[in-house]
Each structure stands twice: as structure tokens, then as C-alpha cells.
Amino acid sequence: MGLLIVGSIGLDNIETPFDKIEGALGGSTTYISLAASYFTGPVSIVGVVGDDFSQDHIKMLEDHNIDHEGLQIVEGGKTFRYGCRYHYDLNTRDSLFTDLNVFESFNPIIPDKDKKASFVILGNIAPSLQTTVLDQLENPKFIVCDTMNFWINGALEDLKKVLKRVNVLIINDSEARLLSKEPNLIKAAKIISDMGPKYLIIKKGEHGALLFGENQIFSAPAYPMENIFDPTGAGDAFAGGFTGYLHKNMELSFENMKRAVIYGSIMASFCVEKFSTKGLENLSFLEIKNRFIEFRDLSTFD
Amino acid sequence: MGLLIVGSIGLDNIETPFDKIEGALGGSTTYISLAASYFTGPVSIVGVVGDDFSQDHIKMLEDHNIDHEGLQIVEGGKTFRYGCRYHYDLNTRDSLFTDLNVFESFNPIIPDKDKKASFVILGNIAPSLQTTVLDQLENPKFIVCDTMNFWINGALEDLKKVLKRVNVLIINDSEARLLSKEPNLIKAAKIISDMGPKYLIIKKGEHGALLFGENQIFSAPAYPMENIFDPTGAGDAFAGGFTGYLHKNMELSFENMKRAVIYGSIMASFCVEKFSTKGLENLSFLEIKNRFIEFRDLSTFD
User: Fold this and answer.
1) Which residues of A touch B220 (CB under 8 A)?
2) Mean pLDDT over each residue of chain B, to the nearest integer
3) What is the DSSP string of A77-110?
């Protein structure tokens, strides 16, 4: 009854107005699994890297109780590499290069033991690959899906097939508007919910997140961040915190999903405080709990 | 110990994707006073109109217990007229015309009885006029100020003088960034607070509002609106609801200001549901109270 995570694993060159880093650990699977690891475990990952992938990275994942039996290491292949430069306000970035390398022919093969996973997070990969993953699973109870504008524009029919099979879709506000063709987010949420997912989370960056489901809406505040060092992976950290928390206590009520959205927001806030995955590598339970209280203080009134 | 409101009064031509209206009652004073009237009273207004201003409008204000002794009616003059067209997403608008008319030479003269006002709302007028208002008051206890990008760009030194004298500044997120020259809103809030106001409210439209003060932050959700018919006056309705609630119970703690921010958000949400001031003309206490509960349900988690 484990938690399975499938997505990309890569090495990133990141430039922000404050600093730059080369060959840093990245990819959706990495951020998602690290964030989830603070709530439940072991989590299993499926992905692909080349033989240039450092044993230090694998060791770091192991230290977080992340099961990497499903990690394919291609001999003679190179790991997916991505470079980007963030603008002054950190809300937008330019892609500098995208070398798919071994990720180009990624064929997710789920280890037998992980086919029984009860919770699955489909990271941001081609919808056809997300379908391949779902087809291998025996009886998943709760499927969380991420996607992006690239697939909404380029693989909409494939994506719509996936959406019919997932429980939760997590996207950002511009992706929600693009997918629904509707500028009003409340109307957009209804249109997207009609595509399949029982729950929809719309992430709004500095403005927090909205959870839609069961004819209810929950508005989560954003953590007040003065110093965002690297926005990379924030959305993945959100998905990992959200799903990890739900997997831990297995309660899928709307009330508990609200808490999960807060834990997702917490992990995203830790993620962006440091470069690459560093913000997710050394957290304590107390730090996470204290930030939960900060979120409550931020939004409570009576 | 009344509530005094000084700002513009005008007649608006408004086009939205849904409808259009000509010569409708508008102006910051109008929206602010109507919104405040549901919480406290009587409220006093100071403004200027021409003799083309309809007695029906004055009757409507009187019906809301709005004291208009300070309303100057210029014989032979024409009321301020403004026309605008909203875009498809209702977030942006084009100004079609601005005929200042009698508003061009507006000199706010505060009636003697209103010089003792304990609460004052300075609507969005020239900072030099806001100063003229403050100079006439005997001992105001609580001053709430609105402004806009036009004055930030064109009358910054005058505005800074006003900010040193006010308790609360209410602006939107783009104005906060412009005034502070800082894209991060949390940092921007600190910069603006250093200019004078003890409390700062940053309105974020569909993303809610932030209250800063006493080294605390409160994040208020936005009411989920599927159908916004006319955004005109939303910010003024916010200021009126916020200040009217505080004037009613005279408790200026941060906890009570949080509630006031919610009541401001509630009045803004009613405002945009109908054209012109119609959404603020016939509300019941129960409607307002029920929407307060909806706001709580929207943002509460434990």
C-alpha cells in the first residue's frame, strides 16, 4: 500500500538574480519524493538517469528512505539536463537549454512490488507516459496528477484521457485558464472538474492555492516569503507534501485535504528558500509543524 | 465622534462584456459611504457635484443615513463624468473619457460639526487635497487613506506627506510595487510602512487581500465570484466596509482589523455583483452576516 512517484530526474543549471549553480539535482520526481518523505515512507520512485548520475544523489535519496528500485540507470547514457535563468521578480524564467538525453526515450517500468501502490503521483511527463504508468498498476486508490502548458497545448487529447482516471489534478492558475479556456478561475475549476478529477488544486504562487471538490472551495494563503532564492521545484514539493500527508493518515475527507494543501504549501515554501533540492534535504518535524502554525495564524479570524 | 468621508462623486458610463450603462452614480465617496452605512451611522460626506446631479441620487444617500451637509452643489456646473470599458477578463479597463467639470476646482470644506470626526476616510483624490482635509480636522483618531498610481507617479512628495499622518493605507498590489519600487510584496509592505502608516492593506483582486501591521500579517481570501458584472467601486466598497466596521465597535486591535478586512472584502464582493452602486443599495444584515460565514468556511482549517 505504498506511495509511487513517476516523473523526471535531471541535473539543472539555475541562474537567479542572487546566485547560480550548475549540475544541481533536479526533476519532478526528486522534489516530489523528498517532500513526501517527511510524511510517509518508504516512497518508491520510477525514473531514468544516465551513468553520469552521481552516487551522492542516490545516497541522499536513500537517506530519505526513498526506494529507487524503479530508477533506470542507462549505461553510456547521459542524464536529462536543463538550464534556466530567472528574471528579477523570480516569477518568470527563460529556458537556456533542454537536453533530454536518456529522458527522451523514457519508458516507465513499474517494479512488481510497486504495482500494488495505493497512492500514485504522476509527475509532469507526457500524458501518454502517465497512461502507461496507470496501465501497469493493480488497483490504485488515489492518483494525483501534475501537468503543464506544454502538454495542454501539444497533447490535449492524451491529457484528457489521463484526467478521466485521476483523483486530483494539481496545476497553476495560467494552466487552469489554458486548459479550461476560461479566465475566471471559479468557472475554470468547474470546467476542469467535468473533465474527470474529483479534486482540483490551482496553485497561484505568491497568492496561495485553491482546492476545489465536493462542491466546496478552500483558499490557502501563501507563506509570506521575503527571500525566494530558487523557485525551481516548488510545485513538485507542493504535490509531494500534499500527497505524502494524505498517504500517511489515509483520510480522504475534504477537511483533511485542506490540511494536506497547507502541508503542500509548507513544503513549497521550504523548497524555494534554498537552491536546488537543498531546502528539502534537512528539515525537522518541528520546523514543519511550526510552519503549519504560522499558516494558521496567517489566515485565522473569527 | 462620526465617520467622515471625502473623495470624488461622479456620473459614470460603464461598458462591460455583459452590459453598458450611462450616467450611473459613481465616485469614491459614493461607494465608500454606501458600504460604511451598513455598519455605522450617520456617516458624513464631503464632495462636489453640479446642478445636473439628480435628486434621486441624493435621496438614495439619505435613505442610507448618509449626511450630505458637506456636499457642495455648484449652480450652473456639471458633475464629474467618467467613461470606461472593461476588457473580457474584467481585470483591465480602458478609460474612454474623463470630464472633471466641477471636480477640477474641488476645494473640500469640512462642515464645523464634521471637524470633530474621529474616523476619516480619504478617498482617492489629489494628496494635496487630502492634506487640506486633515488640516481642517480637530483631533481625528483613525485616518484611512486610499490613493492610486496616478498620484504615486505624479505627486509622490505630496503623497508622502499624507502617509506620515494616516493610520491605514489601502492600495492594490501594483500600486504597492510602484510606491515601494520593490516587486516582493512582503518587502514592499515594510518599505511602505516605514513611510508612515501603522497598518497597510494590499488588495489583490481575485487573490484576496493582505493586512500588515504590528509585525503581523493576515491573509484574507477572495470571495469566489463566478459572475463579476462591474468591478467599478470594489476598492472603495472595501474601504467603506473595513472602516465602517471598525468605527462601529471602536476596537483597533489587530484581531479586530482582521475581521474588518473580511467585512471590507464582503462589501467589495456585493459591489461587483451589480452595475454601479446597485449592489450596495439594498443589502440586509443577514446577507452580510452569511457572507462572513462563507468567508470563514473558505479559509478555515485546523
Assistant:
1) 299, 301
2) 96
3) ---EEEEEEE-TTSS-EEEEEEE-GGGGG-----
For residue A219, give the chain B residue with the closest CA. Answer: B299
pLDDT at B207: 95
Give the model confidence (pLDDT) of A39-87 as tens digits.
998 899 999 999 999 999 999 999 999 999 999 999 999 999 999 999 8
Within 10 angstroms of residue B22's Cβ, the number of other Cβ atoms is 11
Phi, psi of B146 (to 5 degrees): -110, 155
Of B270, B268, B262, B267, the C-alpha closest to B298 is B262
Instruction: Tell the burial category of A296 from Cβ atoms under 10 Å away from its Cβ (0-12, 13-18, 19+).
Output: middle
- Using the Cβ of B300 and the Cβ atoms of chain A, whether some distance falls under 8 Å is answered with yes
Identify the three-state secondary structure at position B39: coil
- Tell me the pLDDT tens digit for each residue of B150-191: 999 999 999 999 999 999 999 999 999 999 999 899 999 999
Q: How much is the pLDDT for B88? A: 79
Name the residue among B186, B228, B299 with its Cβ closest to that of A219: B299
Q: How far A299 CA lies from chain B's nearest CA (Å)?
A: 5
Of the candidates B200, B239, B244, B245, which has an alpha carbon nearest to the alpha carbon of residue B218? Answer: B200
Residues A301, B259: C-beta atoms closer than 8 Å: yes
Strand stretches in chain A, DSSP E: 3-6, 10-15, 20-26, 43-50, 66-74, 80-86, 93-99, 119-122, 142-146, 168-172, 199-203, 209-213, 216-220
Starting at the edge strand that comes first in sequence, how are the strands of the sheet with B199-203 ordered? Answer: B66-74, B43-50, B3-6, B119-122, B142-146, B168-172, B199-203, B209-213, B216-220
Best of B182, B187, B219, B259 to mutate (most A CBs within 10 Å, chain A): B219
Mean pLDDT score, B190-205? 97
Tally the residues of chain A.
302
Does A165 reach chain B within 8 Å, measured CB to CB? no
Q: How far is A297 from chain B (nearest CA, A)?
A: 8
Residue tagged 501537468 (cell numbers): A147
Largest Cα span, chain A? 61
- Tell me the angle at which helices B234-249 and B254-271 cross, rounded to the nearest 10 degrees: 140
CB B167 within 8 A of CB B199: yes
Please state, rounded to an integer, the average pLDDT across all residues of chain A.
Answer: 96
Say if B301 is an interface residue toward chain A (CB within 8 Å): yes
For residue B91, pLDDT over 80 is answered with no
Task: Using the predicted structure, report yes or no on whether residue A91 has a pLDDT greater than 80.
Answer: no
ipTM exceeds 0.90: yes
Question: Facing residues of B5 across strands?
Answer: B45, B121
